[in-house]
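Problem 12. The chain below contains 372 residues. Write out its predicted structure in token notation.
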Amino acid sequence: MNDLDLMRTMRTDAPIPSQQRLDTGEKRLLKVISSDSSGARRAVRTRRRFGGVRVMLLAGGAAAAAGVAIVATQAGVSPVTLHGTPAAEAAKYSDPLVARATFGWLPRGLHANGYVADHQHEKFFQVTAQEGGKGEASVTLTAYERGKEPFLGYLPGKVPAKRIPAASINGHPAYWIYKPNPSGQSSFELRWQYAPSSWADLEGDGLSGSSAELTRTAYKIAKSAKFGDDRPIEMPLHVGGVPAGLSPDRTVLNNGAYGEVSAIVGYNAGGPSSNFGISITKSNGTIGTAVPGKPGMPWKGLPRPNTKLKGHPAYVAPSLLYVYGDNGFDVQITASGAVLAKLNKTGGVVGLYQRMTVLGTDQANWTPNPIN
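Solution.
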């Protein structure tokens, strides 16, 4: 996969707010940050505490402001130094992941461990609760941006979905997009208008019980859901010097969802070929062995290191960077178009990585303010 193909993948494989509609795009997206050639799904969650994190971030910011030289040690050859890197441009960005929706009651064994904030097409915030990260049973709550009702989508076989009458939720109109059937189907999707011009979906998958039991479960979850908290969710990274003028694209955080711990933060500069993304995935110790193929051809696995950064094995290309084993995570940075042009003024993807701090797997050290 070349650099541009990778960025396109990160945009188009956004999760679709229905597992039955177009098959859960999030599962495909998260393959981008897999730590092996098969591409597993990734994720995160947290508790807020600053401790020594603030010291690390200030130290990293001071180094960036001073425009220090960035050294990349080529494997087996002399170090390569990028001299005179200018100071990173200061830009203020809103926290990329805030809890616009939260679960109240959940079935026994389920807990919230996956989050998505998407600003691409149908803008939404999504929280998923799974059973121990195994993915066998899950519920997903999606809160859409205030406005007109979102598109209903399609059922399997590309059949257009239709509203199925349902009882109200907390006095607000509701309907099924698909409902548990008498044979004990374990999946459902329930939509309701929880406030004027404000819509939410609740999906269940892999849950046990009869149609009546699953209906009661769906309503108990929906009635206890909360909206509008906007509490920032802590993430396991901090990045300074992200260029100004970008729009949030997509943020993903998993903390055991799909059996993984990872994060994705993406921005764009107003076009599909001008994107920027950072992903970190809890490392399993694997270091890439793949080598580039012909232009436009996909990678077979992760790229083989061609340098070291901060003492870690790394692969560096003009618009793509992989670093293996930074504080328990593998790091990937991609950039293209106008975003890459802005980054190149402050050391490119390597310079951005030098201004980045991976906060480790201890959630107590994560930050609700991961960007600048």
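Discussion. Residues 122-227 form one domain. Students who got a different answer should revisit the alignment rule from Section 12.3.
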